[in-house]
Amino acid sequence: MPVAPAPTPSASADDAPSADTPGDAPAGGIRRQPQKAVPDEERRAEWQRHWMTPRFAAIEALLASSKHTGAFCHGDAPTLADLCLIPQMYNARRVDLDMTPYPTLLRIEATALAHSAFIAAHPSSQPDAE
C-alpha cells in the first residue's frame, strides 16, 4: 500500500487541514513522559496511564467524528499521523493501558499493522528484539 501523497490545496475551507485535524492529533497529543519523575515501576506506569488516557480519548473522538478518517487516520493510506499514533499505542500497551474504549484507534492500528512498512518497523521485527 503506498503512502498518501501530500495534500493539495482545497477549494473549501471545510476541507482545509488545521492544527486540530485528525492528521495532527496523534503527533501533538501524546508524548513519552519522562520516567525519572516516578522511580517505582508500577507508579510510573500508573502515572503514564493517567496522562495517556485523556489524550487517547481526545484522539478517538476526533478521528471517530472526522469525515477524513478512512482506513488510516487521514484517508486510506498511511500519513504522518499514523506514524505517530501506532508507536504511541504500542507504548500504551507497555504500561497496560486499556485500549478497548478506542475502537477507531484499534481499527486504524489493525490496518497499519497489516501494512508492510509498519510490520518492518515494529519493535518485534528489529534485530535487537527480545
What would you say this structure looks like, in words?
This protein is mostly helical and 130 residues long. It has helices at residues 25-29, 41-65, 80-94, 103-113, 116-121. It has a domain at 40-123: Glutathione S-transferase Yfyf (Class Pi), Chain A, domain 2 (Up-down Bundle). It contains 5 helices and no strands. Helix 3 (80-94) crosses helix 4. Residues 6-19 have low confidence and may be disordered.
Topology of this protein?
Elements: H1 25-29, H2 41-65, H3 80-94, H4 103-113, H5 116-121
Helix pairs in contact: 3-4
- Morphology call: flat
What is the makeup of the main sheet?
none
Q: Name the helix and strand elements from N-terminus to C-terminus, one letter apiece.
A: HHHHH
CATH architecture of the domain at 40-123: Up-down Bundle
* CATH top level class name of the domain at 40-123: Mainly Alpha
Distance, first to last CA: 28 Å
Helix share bin: 40-55%
The counted number of beta strands is: 0
CATH topology of the domain at 40-123, by name, is: Glutathione S-transferase Yfyf (Class Pi), Chain A, domain 2
Number of helical stretches of at least 4 residues:
5
Instruction: Specify Rg, calculated over alpha carbons.
Output: 16 Å
What proportion strand? under 5%
Mean pLDDT reading: 80
Low-pLDDT segments:
6-19
Structural class: mainly alpha
